[in-house]
Design a protein that fits this description.
Blueprint: H1 3-9, E1 10-14, E2 22-27, E3 32-38, E4 45-46, E5 58-62, E6 66-69, E7 75-79, E8 84-88, E9 94-105, E10 111-124, E11 130-133, E12 139-145, E13 154-157, H2 161-168, E14 193-196, E15 215-219, H3 223-226, H4 230-235, E16 239-242, E17 247-250, E18 253-256, H5 262-281, H6 292-300, H7 309-313, H8 317-324, H9 329-332, E19 341-345, H10 355-360, E20 364-367, H11 379-388, H12 390-394, E21 428-429, E22 438-442, E23 446-447, E24 451-452, H13 455-459, E25 470-476, H14 487-491, E26 499-505, H15 509-516, E27 522-526, E28 529-530, E29 533-536, E30 539-541, E31 553-557, H16 562-570, E32 575-579, H17 585-600, H18 605-615, E33 622-626, E34 640-647, E35 653-661, E36 671-672, E37 682-683, E38 686-694, H19 695-702, E39 708-711, E40 714-717
Parallel strand pairs: 13-14, 15-16, 19-20, 19-22, 21-23, 24-33, 25-26, 25-27, 27-31, 31-32, 34-39
Antiparallel strand pairs: 1-2, 2-3, 3-6, 4-5, 5-12, 6-11, 7-8, 7-9, 9-10, 10-11, 10-12, 15-17, 17-18, 28-29, 29-30, 32-33, 34-35, 35-38, 36-37, 39-40
Helix pairs in contact: 17-18
Length: 727
């Protein structure tokens, strides 16, 4: 993307007439609009960005003033020599004497820096905000950088294994550094795209060779062996070459990739091993924070791990990898973040262009066997049971203890059809279990509790999103399902974001057809779905008859909606949540409300599916089509969280387990500082920490924001939790 485009898309806009005065920090590329209040009205003027220690897209001159945030953003202050002179969490303050400072204000949705020459006072407000007082300074500049990443190039390759190896050797060209800081997603960059062609072509010097790369991956020249090492080749900036025995060569060390469980398992384990220790080593560099994973490693294995991370930080990539891998993986495994993505791929050329998108998320890759490319025949009874299991549960008035398959004697479902279609077992597949948050299925058919992506949907992540209010429409096309239409109220519950939420009832086919051509951020459909399409007041709309769709994200909360959902994505939507089977009205309504609150809270679709699959039995019948990393709301603090509250040994205290869910705006490797643990940062994916605190402290924490909570065997929300249910 050109600098001219960035200058227009990333900008500061003063609000007119606001009290107190405010400025909007706008990123039209990512759809972000953050706010800072100011002590007086300002007229920002464009200026040079040379004063900033870190790259920015645009810079503005501000006259001396005070600014404050509307949440307790962590702040890092460095002096002109790069020394960290203040690291502020939640309620901490700092007073800085006259000097030159770069102030990094985190968790605003884009990179925000203040460059200040003079004195600075940083404190917190009564409403959880943060004041940065620069009124005594001589110079105040504001720098902004978008998190947006676009591929720098496209590599054309044949399906021949040796050409594919060369293509994988280009992936590391996107890295902005080969230091351990590449574990920060903002310093990785999106890898080049792959395009299939009749001969190999690569622009410029993207391709790594044995002469230019410090690390080498050797695997037999078959796609089954090559595909799984793509993420490792990217993250290690390695060249991939043919070899009889799968291995990684780092300096004078040769590390086997086949560790008894095949290249897939060995390569994934090595990637997680190096990445996690990179996250620890980087605390010796620009960001010397207290990292919970480092503390845990050093406390648990102080007798067996003796790494001087300060010295290691200065070493070469090959030396760092050698040292990391001298530590047994079982010493590191318990601090590895929950991995964001697993992709099950049929190792054929058709799926080669998908690899850069898997790699961009640091996803791991498993190849489905060519002799049985989807799921074993023994899964057929299990899949049939998946559909039939709900018939008995449906007689319990749709209680969420099974699927809601239609039954003559049972309560209504969201399908106009009855019974089980045995032909469906040939297209629904039960993938091998994956412990990651998202699970891609790159093969024929549809996965249970997974994602069926399309290449076009992935490529739409590069499209700019206009930074205006979020436009949501809830469609209620069946009177028996009106209970779910109250999700419209849930979508508007966000104090720092603007929503325009509309309810449309009993739409005709023509009305619904037109609605899908409009640019809504989210369409939440409540109604019957069957082989003829989506229920309308005058019949059924088969979305496969539409020419184009401009809806960004959708929820089709009706029975067996996966084919209609896939058709929406094929015609222009980015992604959506669908069902693979019949669902009863009552559990579908429960799930619909939960989905609305999760999407409203900034969760990606993959995070939503992970949670509803865990907390609702009927949730196991949902899947995603399109790009699972997409979210409706772009949270300024990026990482969405879920808390689990359980009793502690002391009756006056409770335990809180905090889990993080990365998004496309906050990929794995970002940091999160829980409001209840003010001293420590954690990697933002999976279980981050367990805190034991008093009931009053936990009550205050729960009111700090609105997020999902598991408590006393139930699923609830932090703003409505009663701690009295825990004895």
């Amino acid at each position: 993307m050109s600098q001219a485009v960035l200058n227009d898309a990333v900008r500061v806009v003063p609000q007119s007439g606001s009290k107190p005065p405010m400025i909007d920090l706008v990123d039209d590329i990512e759809g972000i609009r953050a706010q800072l209040s100011t002590s007086r009205r300002v007229r920002p003027a464009r200026c040079s960005s040379t004063q900033f220690r870190f790259p920015v897209d645009v810079a503005y001159e501000l006259s001396p003033l005070a600014v404050w945030t509307h949440q307790s953003n962590p702040i890092l202050v460095q002096d002109d020599g790069g020394f960290v002179c203040a690291e502020l969490m939640h309620h901490e303050s700092a007073s800085l004497s006259a000097g030159q400072y770069t102030i990094d204000i985190t968790s605003l949705g884009l990179k925000v820096y203040l460059y200040v020459e003079g004195e600075v006072e940083i404190s917190h407000t009564d409403d959880r905000g943060r004041i940065i007082d620069c009124r005594g300074a001589e110079t105040v500049q504001l720098g902004l950088r978008s998190f947006h990443e676009v591929p720098a190039a496209t590599v054309t390759t044949t399906d021949q294994p040796r050409d594919v190896m060369r293509a994988l050797s280009c992936l590391g060209s996107a890295l902005k550094t080969t230091s351990c800081e590449r574990s920060f997603p903002t310093l990785r960059g999106h890898p080049p795209l792959f395009e299939r062609g009749e001969r190999f072509q690569v622009p410029g010097d993207l391709e790594r060779t044995t002469e230019t790369a410090s690390l080498r991956i050797e695997v037999p020249p078959t796609l089954e062996m090559i595909y799984p090492v793509a993420p490792l080749a990217y993250y290690l900036n390695a060249v991939v070459v043919p070899g009889d025995t799968p291995c990684l060569v780092a300096g004078d060390s040769t590390i086997p990739l086949d560790r008894g469980d095949g290249v897939e398992q060995g390569g994934a384990q090595l990637l997680k091993h190096v990445f996690t220790l990179d996250c620890i080593a980087r605390t010796e560099g620009f960001y010397p924070i207290t990292l919970g994973e480092r503390t845990a490693l050093e406390q648990r294995h102080s007798d067996s791990i003796a790494i001087d991370f300060a010295t290691l930080y200065e070493r070469s990539l090959a030396e760092q990898v050698q040292t990391y891998l001298s530590i047994p993986f079982d010493r590191v495994e318990d601090i590895v973040p929950r991995w964001p993505l697993t992709a099950d791929v049929r190792p054929v050329g058709n799926y080669l262009p998908y690899l850069p998108f898997v790699v961009a998320s640091l996803g791991t890759i498993r190849c489905l066997p060519m002799s049985c490319p989807w799921s074993p025949p023994s899964d057929a009874p299990e899949i049939e049971a998946f559909y039939r299991a709900g018939q008995e549960a449906a007689r319990n008035d749709g209680a969420d203890n099974g699927t809601g398959t239609s039954s003559v004697s049972g309560p209504p479902t969201r399908s106009s059809e009855n019974g089980f279609d045995s032909a469906m077992s040939s297209v629904i597949h039960n993938p091998p279990t994956a412990d990651s948050i998202a699970h891609l299925w790159l093969a024929d058919g549809y996965p249970m509790q997974g994602t069926k992506p399309t290449l076009d949907a992935f490529e739409r992540r590069f499209d700019p999103i206009t930074a205006t209010e979020y436009e949501v429409v809830v469609i209620s096309n069946d009177a028996q399902m009106e209970a779910e239409s109250d999700v419209a109220e849930l979508y508007g519950q966000h104090e720092r974001m603007d929503f325009d939420v509309t309810i449309r009832e009993q739409l005709s086919r023509a009305n619904l057809r037109e609605l899908f051509t409009e640019e809504y951020d989210l369409v939440h459909y409540v109604g019957h779905v069957d082989a003829d399409g989506l229920q309308c007041a005058d019949g059924w709309l088969d979305v496969r008859t539409l020419d184009a769709v401009n809806t960004r994200i959708f929820v089709l909360n009706g029975c067996r909606s996966y084919e209609q959902g896939e058709a929406l994505v094929e015609r222009g939507a980015v992604s959506g949540l669908c069902t693979l089977a019949n669902v009863g009205n009552t559990p579908a309504t429960q799930i619909g409300r939960t989905v609305a609150r999760l999407l409203n809270g900034g969760f990606s679709l993959s995070g939503v599916l992970d949670i509803i699959s865990e907390d609702f039995l009927t949730g196991q019948q949902y899947m995603i089509v399109g790009d699972p990393s997409r979210a409706v709301v772009q949270r300024h603090d990026a990482t969405s969280i879920l808390a689990e509250i359980t009793p502690a040994s002391d009756n006056d205290e409770l335990r809180v387990d905090i889990h993080g869910y990365p998004t496309i705006r906050s990929p794995v490797g970002m940091l999160y500082a829980p409001a209840i643990d003010e001293e420590t940062f954690y990697l933002n994916s999976g279980h981050m920490t367990t805190v034991t605190a008093s009931r009053s402290e936990i009550k205050e924490y729960l009111h700090h924001d609105r997020f999902p909570v598991r408590i006393a065997g139930s699923f609830a929300w932090s703003d409505a939790v009663s701690l009295d249910s825990i004895e």
